[in-house]
Amino acid sequence: MLVLTRKTEQKIRIGKNITITVLRVQGDSVSIGIDAPEELKIIRNELILDDLEDNVVRANRKSAIIRKNKNKNS
C-alpha cells in the first residue's frame, strides 16, 4: 500500500485519467474529490461490505425457507 501525506487542495494522479484532490480536512474526516472517467465505477468500501452482508442474510433466509418448505412436504 502506498501511503501519502497531502494538504488541502493537493492532488494525487492515478494513471493518466484519475485525479484525487484533498478538498477539506476537519478533525478525523477528510473530504476528497475524485475526477475520473464516467465509465469507471467508484464505490465506498462500506457499501460493498453492506451489500455482501445483505446478500448473506438473503441467502440464509432463502435457505431457511427452502428447508421449511421441504419439511412441510415430507
Key features?
1 helix; 3 strands; single chain; 39% helix; 74 residues; 3-stranded antiparallel sheet; 2 domains; alpha+beta
Structural class: alpha+beta
Helix fraction, binned, reads 25-40%
Averaging pLDDT over every residue, what do you get? 83
Question: Helices and strands, in N-to-C order?
Answer: EEEH
Describe what this molecule looks like in 3D:
- The protein has 1 helix and 3 strands, in the order βββα.
- The chain is α+β, with helices and mostly antiparallel strands and 74 residues long.
- The chain has a 3-stranded antiparallel beta sheet, with no helix packed on it.
- The longest helix is centred in the last third of the chain and has 29 residues, at 45-73.
- The radius of gyration is 21 Å and the shape is elongated.
- 0% of the residues are buried.
